[in-house]
Design a protein that fits this description.
This protein is an alpha+beta fold and 135 residues long. The chain is built from 2 helices and 4 strands, in the order E-E-H-E-E-H. The protein has a 4-stranded antiparallel β-sheet, with helices on one face. Strand 1 and strand 2 (10-16) form a beta hairpin.
């Protein structure tokens, strides 16, 4: 649920579906070096090779992010099944923008829905949740 506090800050209050929060994040893709404008002389080949070496960490990071996302998608049906069939409790979290700042265990699906509405109402009134999530 998306809410705006009295200061105009956007908050998102929702259930956290996975038992953990994603660790890998890709930063600003505008920082990736490119090889535009290189010629075909030996100096340009050396510069291009150095740029390629600088690009390798970004490629490795992109592969790791893709693998983590694939793992999350593979585990999602089992996690949801475990929560529904075995009565695992849902966690409700509040995010300022996209950064999580608060979370708490909320019980089953119905209880977590009521908790989301209550927390969203508190934020709308200006009573912000305590910051209990370290990123």
């Amino acid at each position: 649920m998306k809410v705006v506090d009295p200061a105009g800050q956007t908050w998102r209050v929702s259930r956290r579906w996975m038992p953990w929060r994603r660790k890998a994040h890709v930063g600003n893709w505008g920082d990736v070096p490119t090889a535009d404008g290189l010629g075909d002389d030996p100096i340009s080949a050396i510069i291009g090779g150095l740029l390629l070496l600088l690009l390798i960490p970004f490629v490795v990071l992109a592969v790791l992010v893709a693998l983590e996302l694939l793992l999350l998608l593979l585990l999602l049906p089992f996690v949801v099944l475990g929560r529904v069939v075995f009565g695992r409790h849902w966690r409700v979290e509040a995010r300022r923008g996209w950064d999580p700042v608060w979370e708490d265990e909320a019980g089953d699906w119905g209880e977590s829905g009521r908790r989301i509405a209550a927390v969203a109402d508190l934020i709308r009134r200006g009573e912000l949740p305590p910051l209990n999530v370290s990123t």
